Amino acid sequence: MFGLAISTESEFKKLVFSGLGAWVLIQVVINLGGAVGLLPITGIVLPFISYGSSAMVALFGGLAIGYSKL
Prior knowledge:
Layout: H1 2-7, H2 11-36, H3 53-67
Helix pairs in contact: 2-3
């Protein structure tokens, strides 16, 4: 997602792609930080790994919007 944000010309698209990338990155950092004991355990699912149906639908929806390149 960050690669798409860098390569696009539109400021709106840069913000959307950066936001989607940050959304996934923050979930990964919090989940892995909890797994290794650096952060408290939360209920956030690990993207593409954990079985959370509503979180998975939202994640794939966001990625579909991102990769359609608006």
